[in-house]
Amino acid sequence: MLLANRHKTRGRRRSASWHYLFHEGQIMLRRPESYRINSAKEKQLVEIADNFQRQYLLLYPDRKPLLLCPVNECGVRKFVSTTLRPTHPGLCELHSWKDCSSFVADFLALQPLEPPTEVPSQLFSPTSVLRSQKATCFESSTLLCSLLLSLDYDAYCISGYASREICLLDQSLQQCPLLETQAKSVESQTSKQETKYGVRCQKELRSLFLLEQERKQQEAKAALLQEEELQEVNSRRVADPLRGLRVHCWVLVLSGKRRIQENFFIDPLTGSSFPTNDDNFQGIESVWNCFNCYVNKQECSSGCRDVLFDLEDPRLWEPVFHDAISQQQLSRAVQSKREDQILGRITKLTEIFPTKFRLLRPWVSRIEVSKEDLQTRFPGGKKVTHYIKAKLERLSPAVTKDGLVSRLTTYKDLDCTEVTAVKEWYQNRSDNLEERHFNKLENSTTEHFKPRRAFGLLFHKWKAVTSGTEREMRFDRPELDGLEQRVVSPQAMEESFKDRDDFLYFRHVTFGQGVSSKPCPLKTGLENLNVLKVVERFHRNESKPANEDVAKRVFLVPEMQIDLTYHLMDHRNIPSTRSITKPKEGQPFTNDMFSEFQVDRSQKPLGPLSGYRLAEELKDEEENVAVQIKASLKEVEKILDCREEEEKDLRVFSSLLEQVLAVKQKWVEACMLKEDHLMLRQKEMEVLVPLQKLVGCNDALSAEEANSYCMNFLDKYKEKLDEHTSFLEQNLETLQMDQEDESKDHHHPPAMSNEEAELWCHLCWDKKIQISAAQRRLEKHNKQMKDRCKAFLLNLQQNPLFAVHFVD
């Protein structure tokens, strides 16, 4: 039995390996001929490179072999320069070296070199690498260099030596770049210098010496903490036994093109740029582009600090092909040819380079990067990177259901066990949410939104306090009421405004026992809203005298007192004030209830009649303030309800066009719902017309009569609802038939012009939006029919004519 099982397993392995080889053979046959076969000139290139390799090893026996002719995916040896294929991706998202480097770093998964101290024997083409999304550092650099060359950068691949962290993509002992950018933005906001002609703030009555001492103490504490953290990080660094021997490949970008001022390196694994004297890069063996390959003749005992990149200097660099055209020579030749064309001369490149050797065209097929690749971005739709006390997760929008694209988790310790904060970034959401920040230490949550969303909300932060929840909201709606910020807590509410017609810019409301979670009372008044104190501040109104322009207004509700403070007059240090005590109900207004202080003694004090008029105006203003406070509290509740509904009915859009169409569909649905509301209200009034005859009747109705009336009205209302349902169904059928007729009329779109085709597309989108909105309108009406009947019956039973018989 055991022998039989062994024979079976061997047979399965042989069949599996045969199937694998057959599959690989089929893939090889599908590839172009240039992948599978070397032409005569390519064979000559390989022979020249092999001859150069032999001479190089004889002259430099202590150095490692060069990467000149590795094997491609089809097992054919190809010269490294011919593996580079400058191909413009044709996408606006890849138009700079930052875009290309970040795409390559995100799109490809690292395959470490085995062994790490030797150059690889294989180098797959960029097309195969894009298909598999797996690559070594050499293959990643080849893809990145091909993209940069197509964008007219003077880019080269470098074969050399780098640190362990660079070779293995280990960033666990580095600072997260997102945290660094956030710290810089905070510093730039706090270090705003005062301009010469700016408005100076009022001086703080504090000792500058003590403030300086506090600042120094804080800086010393921060420096001590940073030093301790640095020591802890350095203690975790383990000495690398292969330091200076780990082989790595990266990209060099030389200055002179695309407004590049200085040479710099690009690591294809992270997409980050480094100066050429960075300590992570410890030596260079060779560099190459699509024109030639150059061997370094300079010492690298101190890394790449002293390496010069003048590739045309034979004392520094040895070219594999001495008679080949270099990138710099070709650029100068093209420039001189353009100058000759301006002067009317006709020259050819063969006249400029009569005996120069030219490399063959690349054997690699055209590199194609689709928009789907940009959207997918990461292998498997997710990429996780660990940093010092941080973890960064980047996700593809096509994979996540809530539009999450990045998540940054920060920790308190280096072992990353205790979470301090979580920050998330979103894209293409229907609620316009961009960022969400969870602060575990403060137990707070912060949300950032795009402009032009419901209520003009831009920022929403809430955290739990001892007596409830404190919320901070920021808005962008200058055309509505100028509200910029609102902070609501159980004890108080603060609002900041901008560019209002009444010059109000601040309001502070103090509550007695906290804001109730129940709906606001029907009666409008500060005492009914449980308000103890309201403080309002106003900007200067130049159309009024300073002693008549209110700067601060205070409503003291329990004391029934209103205090007014006016703006400062010119060359005055004390403002004018007025105080009014409101009379109780039934109590007349007396002179004792009014007091004032005028800085300008030439001004006459207000008389009793003027004081009474001012008191009446302030009473009206107090009622207006109470209405605004009540509206603010209701708006907070509406915003919270709206956020709950948005999270339940969340949509993630794949494109900007889809988002625009969704906004248009929402607007069409809102218009249809308004029309529905008006039509149903009209039908309800038609049903209740006989009820008007019973209003003037003096005879009381019995319980049976009241019940029969209500049931008759309800049956008529149901008939009206059924009529409305049939109307909605006919409307939907009409829209669908119109769309079918239009599609039959335009059955041959190639015969249309571009303008007609574009107009036809817009018409199709409009029809689809109207049909989907009509379908939702009908579905919503059918769902709400029972609730509407119940609400209609309840309103009838609460009518004064029938309420006596339906007390329960």
TrEMBL record:
GO BP of this protein: flagellated sperm motility
Domain called Dynein regulatory complex subunit 7 MORN: residue spans: 379-650
Location within or outside the cell: Cell projection, Cilium, Flagellum; Cytoplasm, Cytoskeleton, Cilium axoneme
Transmembrane parts of this sequence: none
Keywords: Cell projection, Cilium, Coiled coil, Flagellum
Entry's Gene Ontology cellular component terms: axoneme; motile cilium
Any matching Pfam family: MORN_DRC7
Family, similarity comment: Belongs to the DRC7 family.
PANTHER family assigned to the protein according to its UniProt record, in alphabetical order: DYNEIN REGULATORY COMPLEX SUBUNIT 7 (PTHR35249)
Protein name per UniProt: Dynein regulatory complex subunit 7
Protein's organism: Fundulus heteroclitus (Killifish)
